[in-house]
Design goal:
By secondary structure, the chain is mostly helical. The protein has helices at about 1-25, 40-60, 70-75, 80, 85-100, 100-120. The chain has 6 helices and no strands. The radius of gyration is 26 Å and the shape is rod-shaped. The termini are far apart.
Amino acid sequence: MLTLYLMYTNLIKLIIVSCLLFSCKPVKEEDQPIPDTVISEDQLIKVLTDIYLGEGASGINVKNVPGEKFDSVYIFNPLKDNNIEKAAFDSSMAYYTRHPKKLKIIYDKVLDRLSVIQATGKVQ
């Protein structure tokens, strides 16, 4: 009788441990929901694309402006143009930096957009 009791007890323990192990399956980082306080991936892709386009335009001085007038000619604020506050951008970048797989996906899409713009000469 005691052996039968021990067998059932061990079987119950095995079932409980098995249930716990199978219920603790990790969620892929890319599938985790993004908090509401973080800028969406699509918005961030657009802002980062605008930032890199602005850096590129200012770096090559497209309008051939002398140095002292440079700042007044190249008025460019991608955060303001996309209605995003700097604090929201900074905290979002901090979030995505802690989630490198999501950040890589974002930067891959930014590079794709920049490649299309370079190939077509048109900003989308």
